[in-house]
Amino acid sequence: MSSQSNKSFTETERDRRVLELYDQLIEVEQRLIPTGLHVFGHPSEAAERTDMLRLIASFDRPELGVRALPDLVSENLGLGSYDAVLKFASSDQARLSERERIDSVVSAAIKEFLHSGSGAAASLLEHNANVDRGDSLPVFALLEEISKQLETNIEIEALLRALRGEFIEPGPGADIVQNPAILPTGRNTHAVNPYNIPSTMAFARAEAVAGNLLERYLAENGRYPRAIALVLWGLDNIKTQGEGVAQAFWLMGVRPVRDALNRVTEVEAISLEELKRPRIDVVMTISGIFRDLFSPTVLLLDKAVRLVAQLDEPPEMNYLRRHVMEQVRHDACFYDDAVARVFSNAPGNYGTNVNFMVIDSQWDRDQTLGDLFVTRKCFAYGRDSEGRSVEGREARVAMDQALRRVEATYQNIDTFEIGITDVDHYFEYLGGITKAVETRAQARPSIYLSDSLSRDARIRSLEETVRLETRAKTLNPKWYEGMLKHGFRGVAEIESHVSNTFGWSATADAVDDWIYTEVAKTFVLDEAMLERLRTLNPHSAHSLVGRLLEAHGRGYWGADVSLLDKLREISSSLEDQLEGVA
Ligand code: BEZ
Ligand code: MG
């Protein structure tokens, strides 16, 4: 904005920008964030439950005969579909007011529910938005059940039973918003039936996400991406019943086919007439956990690639086939190498190690991180042309060739619980593959993440996601004060968010200068805060300051000289404290 601040905008342009800014503020405000760590055996606090219940009530649950509250309110106020209201709220003032009206009725209903119970909340909705009690009461019945389960916690008892070798009741593993049936916690989590992957629901939901991803690239680049590298994780595909897998299918333009036993064992091509766009080349990196949990799915993904590569279609409508042919003709690849698109670790191995290299500051050249990613992940899975199973064949050249053509990298985010700066795994995977693409394609790819749980299946660039995470968590007093309540461990969490943010500089150059500057101001230059950190956990405080200095030293942060001097001084005083000199 700053370079344009002197220009005068037309009124319409000004209004558009204000609306956009407002939309971003709502996004930060409504983001569900953890306000502390989970303490084993402790139920969540009442205040934490309010936001959670509002979010749970904002999704349709056809399997339970429960409608989403915002939809009920929107429809009964005569405003039509809530999705349409949301879609236009960032560009149309009238729609924005409608959105605010709906959201405020929903919030009031949740408050009334917590305060006076289901009957009172249903009356409020009936009175304020003409919502039939027959529609709203099932929603509140669900919320009542969830509330009760959130108040109880059997984790300690279950642990003791486990230690005594006794039976522990099984329960599904998922995100609480996606599937409230995970409650109560403290049960023996069971995962998934890989033959039901992707579920019908997951395949249906993935269409919008894959579509939005392609539309976003198209809007920014004037054409569809020819090849996308995507990351698939095991736990995520458990939680979503295979949404990531389904997105890969949509990008290639195939659908899962079930056999007589209702198992997903085949794929078929969606016709180009139906697809109305080219088939995208998809280079998949799967985690070791995914490989172990989803063997039939790994074979199915490879089958989809081989099917699409064999379709007799024009090259401009089938990028996958086009690239495979190019690899065979120009890169002198064997067909089985040219068609390899499902990559993981060698059998029995896990992870990329890119996170360790970054956190330990053990790299000097930019390309080292991408090369490490490929070294760890260049093992092809699927079947060969003779139908023999291939379980981790080293295929480094094939992976290099496939990555050379990649124009965008992408990972599906399907949870409100863990974001891209909470753990180092997002940057090791999505960042690692991005760096690998950058050196092989000799261009930085566009980098995207989805928010597949958001109502509008939103796609964000990596830079936007880093900003959002920083505003909603790292720099948000609600978040860091929640962490600081945990003392030593809380400071370590703050430090680890800063290091994970740094990971996005190292792998993808995706962190704005202001982020490091504000982190420095909030946690180091504020004397009272620094005092708290150094008292609670001087080790993490020292690492945090060191990480900021490293961000500057490696060229990720253009900081003021005086600010840097101050950081160096504080760093050495922390060092003295740790060495017992001070
Ligand atoms: C997985 O579920 O595949 C996964 C979990 C943690 C880190 C990386 C991958
Ligand atoms: Mg920068």
Describe this structure in words.
By secondary structure, the chain is an alpha/beta fold. The chain has four domains: 10-150, no CATH class; 155-190, no CATH class; 205-461, no CATH class; 475-579, no CATH class. 57% of the residues lie in helices and 10% in strands. It has an eight-stranded mixed β-sheet, with helices on both faces. A two-stranded parallel sheet has the order 1-2. A hairpin with a 6-residue loop joins β11 and β12. The model has no long low-confidence stretch (mean pLDDT 93). It binds benzoic acid (BEZ) and magnesium ion. Residues 513, 556 line the site of magnesium ion.
Low-confidence stretches: none
Shape: globular
Count of alpha and pi helical runs: 27
Q: What class would the helix/strand composition place it in? A: alpha/beta
Strand arrangement, major sheet: 9-8-7-6-3-10-11-12
Count the E strands. Answer: 12
**Strand coverage percent:** 5-15%
Helical coverage, percent range? 55-70%
Instruction: Give the total of domains.
Output: 4
Mean pLDDT: 93
What are the main properties of this structure?
globular, 582 residues, two-stranded parallel sheet, 4 domains, binds benzoic acid, 27 helices, single chain, binds magnesium ion
